[in-house]
Amino acid sequence: QVQLVESGGGLVQSGGSLRLSCAASGRTFSNYAMGWFRQAPGKEREFVVAISWSGGITPYVDSVKGRFAISRDNAKNTVYLQMNSLKPEDTAVYYCAARWMVARVRANEYDYWGQGTQVTVSS
User: Fold this and answer.
1) CA–CA distances in Å: residue 115 to residues 15, 18, 75
2) Which 3 state secondary structure label does DSSP give 67?
3) Which of 36, 43, 98, 121 could pair with 86 in a Cys bridge, judged by C-beta atoms 3.0 to 4.6 Å apart?
4) Rounded to whole angstroms, how far apart are CA atoms 9 and 80?
């Protein structure tokens, strides 16, 4: 079992920045690909970005390319999501997820999930 805990969400004005963190415990963190997903009220959970176990593959959804960046610190068992130039449409609960080795973009390909952290972007 892998336990994931997100933090760093909050309220920010349009154009501002936030950095989300996802702390992992329970298994060997470096062997897992990590992903960020988000879900707005009344909408399906959608893929945002992921990072492979090696860090060499980092797919992003088109809407966040150039604004968001994923990184990982295996020594701290933590993955980060740096979010810049935030827009109101980025408002959602952001979830961290983990799967073995290779990054994927479908939610049902991830095995472990955190509880989520709320990001709200005001106009």
Assistant:
1) 26, 18, 23
2) coil
3) 121
4) 12
pLDDT reported for residue 34 = 95
Question: Which tens digit of pLDDT belongs to each residue from 58-105?
Answer: 999 999 999 999 999 988 999 999 999 999 999 999 999 999 988 999
From CA 49, how far away is CA 120, in angstroms rounded? Answer: 18
Half-sphere exposure of 37 (CA within 13 A, CB side): 24
Query: Which two structure tokens, joined as six digits, stand for 97?
Result: 């997820």
User: Would you place residue 45 in the very low, low, confident or very high pLDDT band (cuts 50, 70, 90)?
Assistant: very high
Query: Which residues, including other chains, have CB under 8 Å from residue 27's CB and lie 6 or more apart?
Result: 1, 2
What separation in angstroms does the CA of 4 have from each of 43, 53, 91, 98, 106? 23, 16, 21, 8, 18
CA-wise closest residue to 42 among 6, 91, 8: 91
Q: Are strands 10-13 and 117-122 parallel, antiparallel or unpaired?
A: parallel
